[in-house]
Structures are given as C-alpha cells and as structure tokens.
Design a protein that fits this description.
globular; mainly alpha; single chain
C-alpha cells in the first residue's frame, strides 16, 4: 500500500494538473464572455457571486473547518460525522431561506429583484454539500473523485452559461448567474444524497457539538475573509458603478488564477500536515514547507510579469477590459500572503484555537473596509486591490504572532518567510511599473530568473539528471 506521504505527493501533482486544466477552460472562455457581456452585466453577475461567498459563511455555520481534525478524532466514524454536520448546516440554511422569504420586500434588496434574492438563499441551502464532499475526498486522498467534481462543474457551467446567454439575450446578467447555479445545484444534490447514504446519520449530539465548537468561532473569520476578497467588489460597485466593478472583478479573477495552482498544493499538504503534527514530525514539516514557499514566490513573480500579455490575449475582443491588468499585481501578491499565512492558520486549526483565527480576521477586515472607504472614492477601483493586499499582509503578521507567542509553536522558518514575501513584493511592484515597457520588464525578469537559477543550481542539476535518467536513458 502507498504510504500517506506518497499519496500526498501524487494528490498534489494531480491537483495542480487538474487546476491548470480547469483554469485553462476559464482562460479560453474569457474572450467569449467579454464578447457576450458588457462590463455592467459582468459586474451584475459577479456581485451576485460575491454575496454567495459572503452569506454562505453564516448559513453553513463554518462547519467545514472541523473536518480536518475530525478525520483524526473520529477515524472510524468519519462518514457518520460528515452526514450529521451536513444535516445541521442544510437545516440552518433552510431556516434562513424561509426567514428571507418572509422579510424580503417586494422590490427586492442588495440591488437584486426579490426572486433573485430568494434564488440566492435557496442555493445556499444545498451548495455547502459540494465542499463537504470535496473535503471528505481530500482527507481520504481520493483525488480522482475530487477532481472529477471540479471538472464537471467547470465544463457544465461554461456550456450552460453560453447557451443561456445566447437563448435568452434580453437578460444576460441573470443568465450568467443561472449558468453557474444550475450545474452546481445538481452536483450539490448528488453530493448531499451520497454523503447521507454513506453516513446514514441525521443527528448525533457529539458530532454537532464538536463541529459547532470549531465552526462557530470561524464565522467571523469566514466573513472577514469574504470581506477581504469580496466586499471590495461591492464597494467598487456602489462607489464607481457596475462597469468599474466588472473591470475590477475581471482583473481580480486573473490575479487569483495563482490561487488555483498554489492552492492545489495546499489541498494535498493539509492532510499530510495534520498527520505529521499528530506524529510530532515538525522537522519534516519545516523542511518541506520551505521548498513550497520558495516556489510559490517564484511562481508569483513570473505570473505578475506576464499579466499584461495575458489580459490582452484573454480580452482580445474587448479592449475595454485591458485596464484591468493594473489590478493583477497587488491581487497576486495578496494571494501570496494568503499562501504564507495559511501555514499559521493550519496550526491554529490543528490545536483547535479557532478563536485566534477569528479575531485576527476581524481586525484585518475592519482595516480593509476603512482603507477601501478612504481610497476607492479617491483613486478608483485599482485602489481596492492594494487595500486587499494590505489586509492580507496584516493578517499574515497577526497569525504569525499568535502561533509564535500565544500557542508557543515554532514550526516554520518565520524570518525567512517574511524576507521572501518582502523581496517578492518589491520585484512584483517593480515589474508592474514596467508594464508599459515590455522589453525592460522581460530583461528584469530574465535577471531575476538567472539569480534564482544560481541560488537553486543544485536542485536544477538534480532535476535535469532525473529527467535524463528517467526519459532519455539509452
């Protein structure tokens, strides 16, 4: 049998491959969407999805955060645990939906008509089941099933969205929303039924209490993260209009493409991390994590350098979107800060100190809202990307301080990590300054690549040797 370290490596590899393929579909369809939708229609649909991300934090009670540790604490009852917490979150979501049907005014709310608001809350009742199923597969190292869900949702969303827009062109913004909701809802129902069939448990007090103790303190954290990643879209929409919101979300989406690569590594890392912490193998965590963080920085630099060309290719049919390139660098650097601080969040989750996570996130979110309120009216939608970067960097500092001085945990190479982030940010900002001059930009990128090659020459030599021996042996 494969040991879990081997499974983690294999899972990580396939998560990266699948995420690249999935995002490739998004890249291919971006020119199509920009041709079919105006920036206002794009902003309308993306604002709806922003509300989904924010409100789902409350309706699902953040029970998902209990899954990783529950896999260790309820090894022989994991299916029953998953089935039970799914019932809890969907039941609460149903109550919230009924309340919204009662209190939502006839003219609607949140800049949406009443029927769209009800549709949103109905969707939130079942949507969390996708996350439950994918988390379950992740901690069981069942990457094939996990990837299959993501691929199906991605492809079906694209097909249905384009079909709906072409068939019902009078309300393209709504059709974009329905193209996302219909396939996701179908998969969510399938996940719900399968989790229930596997666990055969609707209610068990000890599971509910366990999950709520971990999950409820995470609601402020989840809301704060949604604020950091989504509320800026809403504030841009309210301050600058749907058109600027469309530009901002387009650039933001490209900037967060980085998440789908480094996030894939995290999907495989977390189960292995929990097991190594359980076995007190901190040295192994430290050494392997340094490698992951270094290459996360390298990827971020190359990503920022290529952003202008990527934006122009993706939106070749609509030059209006080209200004969104200026959003990419700060968003990519913010994603890098997320990548780093997740290490500390994993420690806080493992030790079940979720109140620390929540407190840090609330402080960062309040700072972010204040910065947005001050800078967006003065400098427009691009300012929102830089305030989000500031929020994530502050969050990284606070999580480090909590794990180091409150939890007394010294697992990572903390000083090195902060140097990595600062250097990467300096290089990334310099590259963004050179966006109008592609020659100087790629000269700088080449210089950075040469320096990195010198620093990691031994690793490169070993990689070349491995490839030659593996694929070109005589």
């Amino acid at each position: 049998m494969e040991n879990n370290s081997t499974k983690a490596v294999k899972s990580g590899f396939w998560y990266v491959i699948s995420n690249v393929l999935i995002r490739s579909v998004g890249i291919i369809t971006a020119p199509i969407y920009s041709k079919l939708l105006t920036t206002e229609e794009t902003g309308y649909a993306n604002s709806f999805l922003s509300y989904v991300s924010i409100i789902t934090v409350v309706t699902c009670l953040c029970l998902i955060y209990s899954v990783g540790r529950a896999k260790l604490d309820f090894k022989d009852e994991f299916d029953e645990f998953m089935s039970s917490i799914q019932t809890l979150s969907s039941g609460f979501g149903l109550i919230v939906m009924i309340l919204m049907m009662i209190i939502c005014p006839a003219e609607g709310m949140m800049n949406f008509p009443r029927y769209v608001v009800i549709m949103l809350f109905a969707y939130l009742t079942i949507f969390p089941s996708i996350d439950y199923m994918q988390y379950k597969y992740r901690f069981e190292y069942r990457y094939k099933e996990n990837i299959a869900i993501s691929v199906f949702i991605t492809i079906s969303t694209v097909v249905l969205t384009v079909a709906f827009i072409l068939l019902f062109p009078s309300d393209k913004g709504l059709m974009k929303i329905l193209g996302t909701l219909v396939p996701s809802s179908a998969v969510a129902i399938w996940c719900y039924i399968n989790i229930l069939k596997s666990g055969k448990t609707l209610y068990k007090k000890k599971y509910w209490v366990y999950a709520l103790k971990i999950g409820l303190p995470m609601i402020p954290h989840g809301l704060s993260l949604s604020i950091l990643s989504r509320i800026d879209t809403t504030m841009v929409q309210n301050t600058c209009g749907f058109s600027d919101a469309g530009l901002y979300t387009s650039g933001y989406t490209i900037g967060t493409l980085l998440t789908f690569i480094i996030g894939a590594v995290g999907q495989a890392w977390l189960p292995w991390f929990n097991e190594q912490m359980y076995a007190e193998n901190r040295d192994a965590i430290r050494e392997k994590n340094k490698i992951l963080m270094f290459y996360g920085c390298v990827l971020t630099i190359f990503f920022i350098a290529a952003a202008p060309e990527a934006v122009k290719i993706l939106f070749m049919f609509n030059r209006t979107y080209w200004d969104s390139m200026w959003v990419v660098p700060p968003v990519a650097l913010g994603t890098l800060c997320q990548y780093f601080y997740t290490n500390y969040v994993n420690l806080e989750l493992y030790t079940k100190k979720t109140a620390l996570i929540a407190g840090n996130s609330v402080i960062a979110a309040i700072i972010n809202i204040g910065l947005n309120a001050y800078y967006i009216p003065r400098y427009g939608y691009i300012a929102a990307a830089y305030t989000t970067l500031a929020g994530y960097f502050i969050l990284m500092i606070m999580h480090y301080l909590c794990t180091r001085f409150i939890l007394k945990e010294k697992v990572y190479a903390d000083g090195l990590y902060f140097i990595m982030v600062i250097v990467t940010s300096a290089v990334g900002i310099e590259l963004s300054v050179l966006y109008p001059n592609w020659i100087l930009r790629y000269v700088l990128l080449t210089a950075v690549a040469l320096i990195l090659a010198i620093i990691k020459k031994n690793d490169i030599i070993m990689a070349i040797y491995f490839v030659r021996r593996k694929f070109f042996k005589s």
